[in-house]
């Protein structure tokens, strides 16, 4: 959603790099570019004016003029101001001292309230709560049925005494839902109310009557993040007519300009508490202003990535995986382990969204958009087509086995070859990362094997670059041997000499491209380096 805004801000800050100090002209030009970027993102004009004024004032202060790197300090100022207009600190749900906690959802029709009710209930369930969904939307056709289906998918109970479709009293349903929750020991009640296509008196009166009947501990205004500044107008109308404690943004995965997310908290003074960015019930989480600001500036969101990894990866399995990668150069890491990791990664969500949380993800947006999520399933099909022995020891997979695996998985032999080749390369990189020789995702808690990428994924490092190919012989074959016995003997001798100069397994390559063996073919380190390694 924030792709355009991210690109504009990144380009603006790139112009500041390398400058020892920032002049007033530099600050004005930067502020002007940021202003244009925010307006193009459909951010409300009052929010833009306040934002630019704050950036200008701080940029002309001592924190920039005395900074060692004024450009980085400018980025910090913009980041701080983004966090401020997004609400400042993370706002958590307030639970009632005496259960049940009542949460009322309000908003326009089409904002995604019913689906979000199921997402919120599932999130509460995963927090150890016993939620109950109350179907108080009796106006929209099949709204009650939709909530029942969503509740069943989430594994959450639903209170729906009325069929809906214009029949029944929503206030009575909401009131009876609280009584039902109390008798059945539900500690949280989520009330789904009716919406309209626009703000009207009937909508406001019905929402206010439900609010007065159930006295909610939290009233959440659900807003579609794709409707731009109209979201601010609607939020102000609800604030005056009903009142609410926090905002929930839906459809953050859309391709709109995202002005609502940057405007509604600042204009209404109410924090954004939750965000939904997908169609799955699990595509829902607490809204963190500082993390969203970091994503907008293309600085990544590593905290969220780590949290998702810790949820998806079993701690004992992760420790066992790390042990395999650290021992014997990672040779104990098999295709079974790789398959286990891939399944855990799929639990974390969309592969595109995971990579999108990395710093600098905006620079590989085209590759992410071109990536096909089904590629993970195709890789899994190839691995499942291997025998247990082949998965345990991939080195035994010869040509005939590869043909059988390709046929069994419905893929091409070349794809099987690429996967196996990438597996060995990635295993080596993951082993180095586990031993602390490489940075990256391999050092994240619970993610010991992601540093080397996912073997065999086209567009994500899965295909080996062909590069420049050596010249072929007269018969079209590389390294073709001469038919002349004398020349052939010379060729074989030259090949042996090249092989002896190449680093063998276990050898350390020299700084000039070949191995540096001693008389026995072993590499000898200088005494001081050898002593240092012994202490390690």
Report on the structure:
By secondary structure, the chain is α/β, with parallel strands linked by helices. The protein has three domains: 1-89 and 291-327, SRP54, nucleotide-binding domain (Four Helix Bundle (Hemerythrin (Met), subunit A), Up-down Bundle), CATH 1.20.120; 101-287, Rossmann fold, CATH 3.40.50.300; 333-347 and 371-432, Signal recognition particle, SRP54 subunit, M-domain (434 Repressor (Amino-terminal Domain)), CATH 1.10.260.30. 51% of the residues lie in helices and 7% in strands. The protein is built from 23 helices and eight strands. The protein has helices spanning 3-14, 24-40, 45-59, 62-65, 70-85, 113-126, 143-154, 170-183, 201-214, 230-241, 259-268, 289-296, 302-312, 315-326, 335-347, 351-356, 365-370, 374-384, 388-392, 399-409, 413-434, 485-501, 527-535; strands spanning 101-106, 131-135, 157-159, 188-192, 218-224, 246-250, 272-276, 284-286. The protein has an eight-stranded mixed sheet with strand order 3-2-4-1-5-6-7-8, with helices on both faces. The two termini are 48 Å apart. It is found in: Cytoplasm. Keywords: Cytoplasm, GTP-binding, Hydrolase, Nucleotide-binding, Ribonucleoprotein, RNA-binding, Signal recognition particle. GO terms for molecular function: 7S RNA binding; GTP binding; GTPase activity.
List strands and helices in order, with pairings.
Elements: H1 3-14, H2 24-40, H3 45-59, H4 62-65, H5 70-85, E1 101-106, H6 113-126, E2 131-135, H7 143-154, E3 157-159, H8 170-183, E4 188-192, H9 201-214, E5 218-224, H10 230-241, E6 246-250, H11 259-268, E7 272-276, E8 284-286, H12 289-296, H13 302-312, H14 315-326, H15 335-347, H16 351-356, H17 365-370, H18 374-384, H19 388-392, H20 399-409, H21 413-434, H22 485-501, H23 527-535
Parallel strand pairs: 1-4, 1-5, 2-3, 2-4, 5-6, 6-7
Antiparallel strand pairs: 7-8
Helix pairs in contact: 1-2, 2-3, 3-5, 5-12, 6-7, 8-9, 10-11, 14-21, 18-20, 20-21
């Amino acid at each position: 959603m924030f792709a355009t805004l991210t690109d504009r801000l990144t380009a603006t800050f790139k112009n500041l790099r390398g400058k020892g100090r920032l002049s007033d002209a530099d600050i004005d030009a930067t502020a002007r570019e940021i202003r244009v970027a925010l307006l193009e993102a459909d951010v409300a004009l009052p929010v833009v004016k306040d934002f630019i004024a704050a950036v200008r004032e701080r940029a002309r202060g001592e924190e920039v003029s005395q900074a060692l790197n004024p450009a980085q300090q400018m980025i910090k100022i913009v980041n701080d101001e983004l966090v401020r207009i997004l609400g400042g600190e993370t706002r958590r749900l307030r639970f009632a001292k005496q259960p049940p906690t009542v949460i009322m959802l309000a908003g326009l029709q089409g904002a995604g309230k019913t689906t979000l009710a199921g997402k919120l209930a599932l999130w509460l369930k995963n927090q150890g709560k016993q939620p109950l969904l109350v179907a108080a939307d009796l106006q929209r056709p099949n709204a009650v049925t939709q909530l029942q289906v969503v509740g069943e998918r989430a594994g959450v109970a639903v209170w729906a005494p009325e069929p809906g479709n214009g029949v029944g009293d929503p206030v009575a349903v909401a009131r009876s839902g609280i009584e039902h929750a109390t008798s059945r020991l539900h500690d949280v009640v989520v009330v789904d109310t009716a919406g309209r296509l626009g703000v009207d008196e009937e909508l406001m009166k019905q929402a206010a009557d439900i609010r007065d009947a159930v006295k909610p501990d939290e009233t959440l205004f659900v807003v579609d993040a794709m409707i731009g500044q109209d979201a601010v107008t609607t939020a102000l109308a609800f604030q005056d007519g009903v009142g609410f404690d926090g905002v929930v943004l839906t459809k953050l995965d859309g391709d709109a300009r995202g002005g609502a997310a940057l405007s509604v908290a600042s204009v209404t003074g109410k924090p954004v508490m939750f965000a939904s960015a997908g169609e799955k019930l699990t595509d829902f989480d607490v809204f963190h202003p500082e993390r969203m600001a970091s994503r907008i500036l293309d600085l990544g969101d590593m905290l969220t990535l780590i949290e998702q990894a810790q949820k998806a990866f079993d701690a004992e399995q992760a420790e066992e995986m790390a042990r395999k990668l650290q021992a014997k150069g990672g040779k104990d890491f098999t295709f079974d382990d790789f398959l286990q990791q891939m399944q855990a990664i799929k639990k974390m969500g969309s592969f595109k969204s995971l990579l999108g949380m990395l710093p600098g993800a905006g620079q590989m947006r085209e590759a992410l958009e071109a990536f096909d999520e089904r590629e993970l399933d195709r890789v899994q099909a190839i691995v499942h087509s291997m025998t247990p022995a082949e998965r345990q020891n991939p080195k035994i997979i010869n040509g005939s086995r590869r043909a059988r695996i390709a046929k069994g998985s419905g893929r091409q032999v070349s794809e099987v070859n690429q996967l196996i080749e990438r597996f060995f390369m990635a295993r080596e990189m993951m082993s180095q990362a586990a031993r602390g020789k490489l940075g990256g995702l391999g050092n994240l808690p619970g993610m010991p094997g992601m540093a080397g990428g996912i073997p065999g994924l086209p567009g994500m490092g899965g295909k080996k670059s062909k590069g420049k190919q050596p010249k072929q012989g007269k018969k079209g074959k590389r390294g073709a041997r001469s038919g002349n016995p004398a020349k052939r003997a010379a060729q074989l001798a030259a090949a042996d000499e090249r092989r002896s100069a190449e680093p063998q397994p276990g050898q350390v390559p020299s700084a000039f491209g070949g191995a540096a063996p001693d008389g026995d073919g072993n590499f000898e380190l200088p005494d001081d380096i050898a002593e240092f390694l012994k202490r390690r």
